[in-house]
Amino acid sequence: xxxRSAVLxxxxxxxxxxxxxxxxxxxxxxxxxxSEDRAGFVLEVxxxxxxxxxxxxDAAEAALxxxxxxxxxxxxxxxxxxxxxxxxxxxxxxxxxxxxxxPKAPVPTDRPAxxxxxxxxxxxxxxxxxxxxxxxxxxxxxxxxxxVGILDADVYGPSLPTMTGVSGKPEYRDGMMQPHLAHGLxxxxxxxxxxxxxxMVWRGPMASQAITQMLTQTRWGTxxxxxxxxxxxxxxxxxxVQLTLIQKTPLDGAVIVSTPQEVALADAxxxxxxxxxxxxxxxxxxxxxxxxxxxxxxxxxxxERLGVPFLGDLPLVAALRHAGDAGAPLVASNPDxxxxxxFAVVAARMADVxxx
Length: 356
Ligand SMILES: Nc1ncnc2c1ncn2[C@@H]1O[C@H](COP(=O)(O)OP(=O)(O)OP(=O)(O)O)[C@@H](O)[C@H]1O
What we know:
- Residues 86-110 are annotated as: Disordered.
- The protein has 14 helices and 13 strands.
- The protein is an alpha/beta fold.
- The chain has two domains: 7-79, Fe-S cluster assembly (FSCA) (GMP Synthetase, Chain A, domain 3); 108-354, P-loop containing nucleotide triphosphate hydrolases (Rossmann fold, 3-Layer(aba) Sandwich).
- Strands 8-9-5-10-4-11-12-13 form an eight-stranded mixed beta sheet, with helices on both faces.
- The longest helix is centred in the C-terminal third of the chain and has 17 residues, at 338-354.
- The chain is elongated and about 60 Å long.
- The chain binds adenosine-5'-triphosphate.
- Adenosine-5'-triphosphate binds next to α4, β12 and α12.
């Protein structure tokens, strides 16, 4: 395995154009990961400086690649948001400090330009089909004539590139990342910017910074043609990473995906509670993989218990999995099929809840 200090020394041979120091000395190397045959880090620069630092990122990647034993490298360029006030270190917490640790409503300053609504697709549990639902629901909303984008923020397993067949780093133009276009959707994924294995080790603040960058520095829409809906595919779970993300992302609502088993529904309940805490309305619950194996109806009953709309159920069918593996959402590749019809129902109910 490559030596960490050798990696830092290599990065110090790349200069920060602002301070003239090496990148490590300048404090620009965050979250360095060195393992087996790969190395990567987050290059954190001041807000507005990302275009200027794109060549620095490329130089840092080249410097890492030149280290013997390193085959895969990834440098994610992120911009700082407004400097966070550091709480004073005191022996006991003041009431204000205690209050600071409580979840807050999202910070509205991070709103992406020319995007009408930002919606999260969340699940309390991994593997329940959150990404499958995100992609197909986005396609169903697009089929209603809306302009729709997807931001795959699932740092634990970005699957949008596979599910939509897109690859390659996004292009930078005029200081903004251009989303990929496929199946009538605008697409951006954490998986297009970094190796999935690197993103997985990100802590909450780092993940949220990368996601804020993808949110605010992607050309989702223009003044003349704003994006109607941006669907954000969140990482599964209800831990710190998710909390930080939903606090930092200006969400207008959330859709929770669950399978019908009680254990998954209990997690869906926790996800709903998390959104409630930060003041993001739950637009509804979708039951996925319903049918013989897992049962049916648990989602509708749970939605009623939570007092949120039930948006619909989707059966466990091999075609959905195959379409995902093949890189074309089933709703787009078979728009007249049973699954497309079910997603159209979910999209219609959602549009109804949103009043669009
Ligand atoms: N209704 C369904 N019928 C059949 N297969 C499905 C269905 N929904 C999802 N799948 C398959 O289940 C697997 C997990 O789905 P997906 O990746 O969408 O879940 P996820 O909740 O986003 O997972 P993770 O939490 O790991 O990101 C995928 O292989 C997908 O194709």
